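User: Second chain of the day. Same drill as before.
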Amino acid sequence: MMFFSFDTGFSLFSSLFSIAFIVIFGIIIVAAVRGIAQWNQNNHSPRLTVQACITGKRSEHHHHHHDNMDTSSTTYYVTFQVQSGDRMELRVNGWEYGQLAEGDVRNLTFQGTRYLGFERY
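Assistant: Same format as last time:
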């Protein structure tokens, strides 16, 4: 007794492969559209400079393994609190992350979700 023939199994594999390809391609398209939308929103946001205090820092480490090659990357984030009490977490580069300390109070310049600088008064 055979549950499915070779033709049915191949057809099932082909269908699942096609669905997986479409799902993965869809995820890539959605991520690209979201990235472009965020970039556009930042470009249309006003450039603001406000007094802010650093209330937190964090980093995310990503490890990738592809074709017997290991790579890693780190994304850095700093949380700022403005005078109104609102907090915002902005992505910064590694050099800036190393220069900033919790408790620092300076002028924060940003545009939407884009960090532009944190300078003395």
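DSSP finds two helices and five strands in the chain.

User: Great, on to the next one.
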